[in-house]
């Protein structure tokens, strides 16, 4: 396999052998997109002044080996040789993976807190029950009886629910705020846990909702996802700065 220059990524010249090795190890499919995405990580690292130490790169190499199910370094070396993956290719991949990990770790508390506000607004979940009624007048009567405590919401489900409603007790799930149907959103977001909401028209039916619980994501429990969201928020900017040129 040729060692002549095959592609240039920014200022880095890569042979065909190295290029194919990178695509294989980085689990890529389309050459240009793969190179732009992963070398964008290196650009991202530079922008945040993230510089992996030798230990970080070695750990990334060990993690790569383990991802291929190989505990022994000798087995991985043999596999790389069989697939024409040279040392330079391994170094580049290890550096990219080390930078990826360090970038996510580099986000400061203030950045995480700002992202958490957006995350909370999108991912707060609402545990909802729904009793659909075909007639508006009947729905209003049922709602009034529930509010006046003449009947409980659970009893209304049992009395007026169809087979589909009864099978789940009216439960329609924990719905993230960002996925709330437009018809429900205004009333649900202004309600408190335990509220029964006045009938809402939805696809020709009148739905009486019960907001059982509001689950707000915990900041500490969400930290890993927040770091992932921040990375994804900014990576495209750096990906777009990567220039990939073939030598032919």
Please provide a written account of the structure:
The protein has helices at 16-25, 31-47, 54-67, 73-82, 87-106, 109-123, 136-147, 153-160, 163-168, 182-189, 223-239; strands spanning 5-9, 12-15, 125-133, 171-176, 196-202, 205-215, 244-246. Helix content is 55%, strand content 18%. The two termini are 16 Å apart. The chain is an alpha+beta fold and 248 residues long.
- How many distinct beta strands? 7
Oligomer: single chain
Strand order of the largest sheet: 4-3-6-5
Question: Beta fraction of the residues?
Answer: 15-25%
What is the SS-derived class? alpha+beta
Q: State the helical fraction.
A: 55-70%
Biggest pleated-sheet summary: 4 strands, antiparallel
Radius of gyration: 27 Å
Low-confidence stretches: none
What is the string of helix and strand elements?
EEHHHHHHEHHHEHEEHE
Number of helices: 11
Mean pLDDT: 93
Query: What is the terminal-to-terminal distance?
Result: 16 Å
How many structural domains are formed by the residues?
2
Shape: elongated
């Amino acid at each position: 396999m040729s060692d002549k220059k095959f592609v240039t990524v920014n200022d880095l010249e890569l042979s065909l052998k190295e290029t194919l090795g990178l695509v294989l190890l980085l689990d890529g499919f389309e050459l240009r997109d793969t190179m732009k995405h992963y070398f964008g990580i290196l650009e991202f690292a530079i922008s945040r002044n993230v510089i992996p130490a030798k230990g970080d790169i070695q750990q990334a190499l060990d993690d790569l080996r383990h991802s291929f199910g190989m505990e022994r370094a000798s087995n991985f070396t043999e596999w790389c040789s069989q697939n024409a993956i040279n040392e330079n290719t391994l170094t580049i991949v290890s550096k990219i993976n080390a930078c990826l990990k360090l970038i996510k770790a580099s986000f400061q508390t203030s950045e995480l807190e700002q992202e958490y506000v957006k995350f909370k607004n999108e991912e707060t979940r609402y545990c909802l029950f729904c009793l659909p009624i075909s007639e508006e007048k009947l729905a209003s009567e049922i709602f009034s009886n529930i509010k006046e405590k003449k009947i409980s919401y659970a009893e209304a489900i049992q009395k007026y629910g169809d087979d589909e409603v009864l099978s789940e007790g009216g439960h329609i799930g924990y719905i993230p705020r960002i996925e709330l149907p437009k018809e429900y959103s205004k009333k649900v977001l202004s309600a408190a846990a335990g509220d029964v909401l006045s009938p809402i028209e939805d696809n020709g039916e009148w739905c009486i909702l019960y907001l059982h619980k509001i689950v707000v994501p915990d900041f500490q429990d969400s930290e890993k996802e927040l770091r992932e969201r921040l990375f994804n928020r900014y990576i495209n900017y750096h990906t777009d700065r990567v220039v990939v040129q073939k030598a032919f």
